[in-house]
Design goal:
Layout: H1 2-44, H2 48-51, E1 62-65, E2 68-71, H3 73-83, H4 87-90, E3 92-104, E4 107-117, E5 123-134, E6 137-145
């Protein structure tokens, strides 16, 4: 009888833990999507510094695009400013998120598409970004966009 009671409590504990993990993952994903919505808004207002607030402000940030690998927040911002010098170039940004997958307790990868509607010609592509929770905040630590 004691074994049955112990097994019951263990199973209840495991079930509660799994539900807690599902809730935590749902919260994480919602927070990540909120950051990406803020990025869409900032970009669409040609606020590139605001857009970059979603990124880890560190020299170890990695961005891999058509021009190769870039290291660092400041260099990534400089590249955005060079490539999108005016509102006509940055246009209106919309993300389509196709997948958010947990890597571990503090990291997710996000795969999707970006769509820029702009007077100088529309631009579309795909991305894979890695979000990591740093000091209690989700930040992009790596971005591959093309």
């Amino acid at each position: 009888m004691k074994k049955l009671i112990l097994i019951t409590f263990v199973l209840i504990g495991i079930s509660c833990q799994k539900e807690s993990q599902k809730t935590s993952e749902a919260t994480d994903k919602k927070e990540i999507l909120t950051i990406m919505k803020s990025q869409e808004k900032a970009w669409s207002n040609h606020d590139l510094e605001g857009f970059m607030q979603g990124y880890w402000k560190n020299d170890s940030l990695k961005f891999y695009g058509s021009s190769g690998l870039t290291y660092g927040w400041n260099k990534t911002l400089a590249n955005y400013k060079k490539g999108y010098p005016t509102k006509d170039h940055s246009g209106t940004l919309k993300f389509k998120v196709n997948d958010i997958s947990k890597i571990n307790n503090n990291a997710y990868f996000v795969m999707g598409e970006y769509h820029l509607t702009r007077p100088v010609g529309n631009a579309n592509g795909v991305f894979m970004i890695i979000f990591k929770k740093i000091n209690g905040e989700w930040k992009i630590i790596a971005d591959t966009s093309c």
